[in-house]
Design the sequence.
């Protein structure tokens, strides 16, 4: 895909993800939804944090496309490196994690993660925009252009730090309000909850490794290419 086309593509995706967050903020006026968004608003849910993350990533990718066209590759190495780190360590793993974890729980028992009454507030297309479309879009990004992965320890450390920070926020909200962000947590004993959190980190790490494998499959070893230049 030509650089101009990729710039337009990333710009449109950034606007799309910002629109989804704006749409949610307008829906917060609904009485039932305002109750769900108590104690932290929409940002207590990983789904909406991921939508914001995708908007930021695509905005950075669009900026990198524009500056590369104007200044050339050598003058924007920092932005390119930041774009690569953002996608490899956060944007791809988080979208994949949200997609897999949401639909696994939804298909098992939707009341554990997305109660049926929400269907009367959010239309079906919005649910798929938040939880389904996010995955094929990051797959398209892998196919669209190569990304240089950081050292595995560095990439996983950043991803796990983000995951740990989110879990701390979830536990803090429960400690302050006595209410779990996700209904599924209320069904688990403390021991099972600890196991559940551990499994989420395993899944999160697996999504990082999946992205790395797909990038290597499509584009080869980017680190090796860097050494040969």
Sequence:
């Amino acid at each position: 895909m030509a650089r101009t086309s990729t710039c337009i593509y990333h710009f449109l995706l950034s606007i799309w993800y910002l629109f989804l967050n704006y749409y949610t903020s307008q829906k917060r006026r609904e009485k039932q939804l305002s109750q769900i968004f108590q104690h932290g608003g929409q940002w207590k849910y990983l789904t909406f944090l991921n939508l914001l993350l995708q908007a930021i990533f695509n905005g950075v990718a669009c900026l990198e496309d524009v500056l590369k066209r104007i200044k050339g590759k050598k003058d924007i190495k920092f932005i390119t490196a930041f774009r690569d780190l953002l996608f490899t360590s956060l944007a791809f793993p988080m979208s994949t994690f949200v997609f897999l974890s949401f639909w696994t729980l939804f298909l098992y028992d939707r009341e554990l993660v997305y109660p049926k009454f929400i269907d009367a507030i959010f239309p079906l297309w919005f649910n798929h925009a938040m939880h389904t479309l996010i995955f094929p879009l990051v797959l398209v990004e892998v196919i669209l252009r190569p990304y240089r992965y950081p050292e595995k320890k560095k990439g996983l450390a950043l991803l796990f730090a983000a995951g740990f920070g989110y879990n701390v926020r979830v536990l803090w909200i429960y400690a302050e309000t006595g209410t779990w962000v996700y209904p599924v947590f209320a069904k688990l004993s403390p021991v099972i909850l600890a196991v559940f959190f551990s499994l989420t980190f395993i899944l999160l790490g697996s999504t990082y490794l999946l992205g790395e494998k797909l990038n290597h499959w499509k584009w080869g070893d980017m680190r090796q290419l860097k050494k040969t230049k």
Remarks:
- The chain has a mean pLDDT of 90.
